Amino acid sequence: MSQTLREPPRYLARRSEYGYTDRADLALHGEPEAVPAGYQRTLTVRASRAELQRKREEWEAMTLPIRLALRALKASPIGRERESDLRVIARVLDRVDRDLTRR
Questions:
Q1: Mean pLDDT value across the chain
Q2: H or E element at residue 21
Q3: Among positive and negative, which fits the CA dihedral 88, 62, 47, 31?
Q4: Are 43 and 31 in contact (CB under 8 A)?
Q5: Percent of the chain with pLDDT over 70
Q6: How many Cβ atoms from other residues are within 10 Å of residue 11's Cβ?
Q7: Whether the predicted model's global pTM rises above the 0.70 cut
Q8: Rounded to whole angstroms, how far apart are CA atoms 62 and 93?
């Protein structure tokens, strides 16, 4: 005879230092049962990835005008005089790009 394995219920504990409880009498009144721990971890990972992707896209959109301005400056007489400084700015942008890509 096979038994169906079911995770114990997860209720938000009345006292926050306990996190979750499987006992309704210790749970916060009126709160619904929490999702299973594994599913909660999956949701957290998805949300973290989505937030990182949003940050990457925001960074790319915000730095595009800077990169275009750097390109124009490099081609100008002022840019040729300040070539080293412009390379420093470009390297900083590239370093942040790499940092956001590695996460």
A1: 89
A2: strand 20-21
A3: positive
A4: no
A5: 95
A6: 19
A7: no
A8: 11
